[in-house]
């Protein structure tokens, strides 16, 4: 299935990623999920396919696409496995795009070739044990001493931060205090091999078990002054820009989940017999599956509308509102879809040797990552002009 008026190039990209996911990911999913295994070889193959370069210009080794192309790839990966969908989404949206948008030519030449080719992965260290959406509560500090940033702090739930091919983590830190008393926040690129960059053991997660997620400790980490990404004190604006696009990619991941739940529910309801016929004959089942189709279409349209606004240079305020709406609706719909699919499958829906249970587990984090549903509602309300706190 594809969106209305999809270009031949987009249809080809969908088909390419779908075939790759079925051939390289699907046969191994159950084992990888059970073992919490991060498949570096498959991630490198994703790089060979050009997936990490979808948003990068051709002169930097990319294909010159935009958020729409990234969403297409994330959606198709997400139809098979949500973990590798978020691996791509985070690597591009949080690892590559901040360097594309804010990096100096020297920074881009140093780090982007390997990131764009998928030979290495980048991470973004924002969330902390005591600070998430409230960036003003950030405790990580960076002090400028003798031409070096000295960074101390801790980060939590950082995707792609501890893989064997992680090369950099852009760290958000307090670099001073603004005149109004609020923290001055800046973004600093920290090479993963820096002394004091300590990758803690991976989180034991209910969701996205194949994805790489770690706590990070930054203990007296020294990096050159030139590793500042963008302007000093501009970290919050940089973060918000990255998160807006990231929310649309998470919405695309939710669309992939919705599509698979609909496909599986239709197939199962058509063949599972009960009381002399398939359960799909029962309105109680059929109507819920019909609702899945409505949610899928709405989520897909909202997601690609937001992506198109970004790609066509719409005003930031318009794109931000569309991104939050897409993220909120698509992710909450995905959670509902997995619940419905599990109910349609009955006992089979909660068996770990089937796909529904894995999608059920994976869906919940969609409402949390890249800004919770509550945060999205707050942002949407503010976008409407309401003085919500």
UniProtKB/TrEMBL annotation:
- Range of residues in the leader sequence: none
Q: Which PROSITE patterns match?
A: ACYL_COA_DH_1, ACYL_COA_DH_2
Q: List each coiled-coil range.
A: none
Tell me what this protein is called. Answer: Acyl-CoA dehydrogenase family protein
Names of required cofactors: FAD
The residues covered by the Acyl-CoA oxidase/dehydrogenase middle domain are 123-221
Tell me any Pfam family this protein matches: Acyl-CoA_dh_1
Any idea which GO molecular function terms this record carries?
A: acyl-CoA dehydrogenase activity; flavin adenine dinucleotide binding
**Statement: the UniProt record of this protein carries the keyword RNA-binding:** no
Which residue numbers delimit the Acyl-CoA dehydrogenase/oxidase C-terminal domain? 233-384
Q: Which family does it belong to?
A: Belongs to the acyl-CoA dehydrogenase family.
Protein's organism:
Antribacter soli
Supply the SUPFAM superfamilies for this chain: Acyl-CoA dehydrogenase C-terminal domain-like, Acyl-CoA dehydrogenase NM domain-like
Q: Which InterPro entries match?
A: Acyl-CoA_DH_CS, Acyl-CoA_Oxase/DH_mid-dom, Acyl-CoA_Oxase/DH_mid-dom_sf, AcylCo_DH-like_C, AcylCo_DH/oxidase_C, AcylCoA_DH/ox_N, AcylCoA_DH/ox_N_sf, AcylCoA_DH/oxidase_NM_dom_sf
Where would I find the Acyl-CoA dehydrogenase/oxidase N-terminal domain in this sequence?
7-118
Name the UniProt key words of this record, in alphabetical order.
FAD, Flavoprotein, Oxidoreductase
């Amino acid at each position: 299935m594809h969106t209305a008026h999809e270009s031949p190039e987009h249809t080809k990209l969908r088909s390419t990623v779908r075939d790759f996911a079925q051939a390289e990911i699907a046969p191994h999913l159950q084992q990888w999920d059970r073992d919490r295994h991060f498949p570096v070889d498959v991630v490198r193959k994703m790089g060979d396919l050009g997936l990490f370069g979808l948003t990068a210009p051709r002169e930097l080794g990319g294909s010159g696409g935009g958020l729409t192309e990234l969403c297409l790839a994330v959606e198709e990966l997400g139809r098979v496995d949500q973990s590798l969908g978020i691996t791509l989404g985070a690597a591009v949206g949080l690892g590559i795009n901040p360097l594309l948008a804010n990096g100096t030519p020297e920074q881009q030449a140093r780090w982007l070739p390997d990131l764009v080719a998928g030979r290495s992965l980048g991470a973004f260290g924002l969330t902390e044990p005591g600070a998430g959406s409230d960036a003003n509560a950030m405790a990580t500090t960076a002090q400028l001493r003798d031409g070096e940033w000295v960074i101390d702090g801790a980060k939590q739930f950082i995707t792609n931060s501890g893989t064997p091919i992680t090369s950099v983590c852009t760290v958000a830190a307090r670099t001073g205090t603004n005149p109004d008393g609020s923290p001055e926040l800046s973004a600093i690129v920290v090479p993963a091999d820096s002394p004091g960059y300590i990758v803690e053991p991976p989180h034991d997660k209910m969701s996205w078990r194949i994805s790489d997620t770690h706590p990070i400790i930054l203990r007296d980490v020294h990096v050159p002054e030139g590793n500042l990404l963008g302007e000093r004190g501009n970290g919050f604006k940089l973060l918000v820009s990255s998160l807006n696009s990231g929310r649309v990619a998470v919405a695309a991941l939710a669309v992939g989940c919705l599509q698979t739940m609909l496909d599986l529910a239709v197939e199962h309801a058509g063949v599972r017999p009960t009381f002399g016929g398939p359960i799909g004959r029962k309105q109680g089942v059929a109507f819920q599956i019909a609702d899945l189709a409505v949610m899928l279409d709405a989520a897909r349209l909202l997601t690609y509308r937001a992506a198109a606004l970004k790609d066509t240079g719409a005003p930031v305020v318009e794109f931000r509102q569309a991104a939050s709406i897409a993220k909120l609706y698509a992710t909450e719909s995905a959670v509902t879809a997995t619940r419905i699919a599990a109910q349609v499958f009955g006992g089979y829906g909660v068996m770990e040797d089937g796909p529904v249970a894995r999608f059920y587990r994976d869906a919940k984090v969609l409402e949390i990552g890249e800004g919770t549903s509550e945060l999205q509602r707050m942002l949407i309300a503010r976008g409407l002009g309401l003085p919500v706190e």
